[in-house]
Amino acid sequence: MDPIMVRLGDRSYKILVGKSLSSFRQEIRKLNLGTDAAIVTNRKVRALFGRELESLLKGSGARTVFIEVPDSEKAKSLKEAAKLLKALSAMDGKGKRLFVAALGGGVVGDVAGFAASAYRRGIPYIQVPTTLLAQVDSSIGGKVAVDLPEGKNLVGAFYQPKAVLADIRFLKHLSGRDFTSGLAEVIKYAVIKDKALFRLLESGSRKVTSRDPKVLTSIVRRCAAIKAEIVSRDEKEKRSLRTILNYGHTIGHAIESAWGYSNKYSHGEAVALGMIAAARISHEIGLLKGSDLFRIEKAIRGLGLPFRLSGSKAGEIMESLSYDKKFIHGVNRFVLPTGIGRVTVKENIPEILIRREIEKLSS
Predict the structure, then answer these.
(1) Residue of 193, 267, 280, 283 with catalytic role
(2) pLDDT for residue 238 is more than 80
(3) How many CB atoms lie within 10 A of CB 276?
(4) Which residues of 131-215 form beta strands (DSSP E)?
(5) Domain end: 173, 200, 235, which one?
């Protein structure tokens, strides 16, 4: 299939969507990434796909070393990033040109990309996403980061990969929960930019949830193309175009923080709840019709994502949101849907309204 381009001048790169890593061999050789590859992954993913990626990289002439990180959000910590940087240093040496291959989901992609951005002020890296969430969203666009106890993704950079290799076959290995979690990001793209994709999610949910390869290929390519277009036009959110990709994430990140980045809510599950809250806020202030709010909520529920919080932590969620304000000109900022396929960005949403909608998620 034709590659999807992220156009950023001399930092442009291809998103390759296919049905085997071996089909990307020629493109990898063209990149001339380096002599030594650090394959950053976790134990489970390494067992499933590590040998295949190792073969691909060795075929391009690179030596390989595996570096494992924990299989959870806890991998995105300064402590784990330091371990990773130290491991890169141990690989380094005279005549070597190191590069990183991030093999895994969003967590692996974030911490591996962050380490690549920091080591020697930046070494090349590629993203090899193995989850739906990573293939449609987190592997694209160059946002790399680790978490602090105070909040998610507070230490990071914009650092673009040299390529994104999305193998659709990987998705059949996902647990039901992980696959469903990725669908939250797909819904996000449909709401912000693609009516046709939203209709597919509404009418073809069985084909989606059964992981039909043709349907998944279409979904991954469409979401990747939307993100590539937005990133190409607004890489660092200076024009507020890229901001729309945060639909559902403002409250979603706060939910993750309130539960201590535990297994209680995955990133996608938290974003789904955040999308519901944002849609309800939009309806309350007169921007979203009730019929479209109903469609958004129905799509989220129909694809198996949560639509209620288990337990009331409105105070903790609001506290996390208030910390977030420091990074947005001192005021809150929400991406609010105004229809299916359309959103707007609003600042200074009344805190009483935000709290009320968060509390409704628990009722």
Answers:
(1) 267
(2) yes
(3) 24
(4) 143-148, 151-158, 163-167
(5) 173
pLDDT of residue 311: 78
253 is catalytic: yes
Question: Of 162, 193, 222, 249, which is the active-site residue?
Answer: 249
User: Apex CA 186: angle with CA 78 and CA 134, to 5°?
Assistant: 35
Provide the strand spans (E) within 105-214. 125-129, 143-148, 151-158, 163-167
Residues 12 and 73 in one domain: yes
Q: What percent of the chain has pLDDT over 70?
A: 98
Q: Is 32 a catalytic residue?
A: no
Residue-wise pLDDT for 144-186, tens only, equals 999 888 777 889 999 999 999 999 999 999 999 999 999 999 9
Residues in the chain: 363
Q: Is-catalytic flag, 267?
A: yes
360 is catalytic: no
Number of domains in the chain: 2
Of the listed 253, 283, 295, 333, which one is catalytic?
A: 253
Q: Quick check: is 295 catalytic?
A: no
Average pLDDT, the chain: 93
User: In the annotation, is 332 catalytic?
Assistant: no
342 is catalytic: no
**pLDDT per residue as tens digits for the range 9-37:** 999 999 999 989 999 999 999 999 999 99
**Which range marks the domain in which residue 22 is found?**
4-173
Tokens of 26: 């020629």
CA atoms within 13 A on the CB side of 124: 19
Question: What is the reported pLDDT for 326?
Answer: 44
Give yes or no: 237 in active site: yes
Q: Are 201 and 300 spatial neighbours (Cβ–Cβ below 8 Å)?
A: no
- Is 86 among the residues known to form the active site? no
Of the candidates 14, 46, 76, 143, the residue annotated as catalytic is 143
Checking if the pLDDT of 120 tops 50, the result is: yes
**Spatial distance between the Cα atoms of 178 and 2, rounded to a whole number of angstroms:** 28
Q: 143 an active-site residue?
A: yes
Among candidate residues 173, 189, 213, the one where a domain is terminated: 173
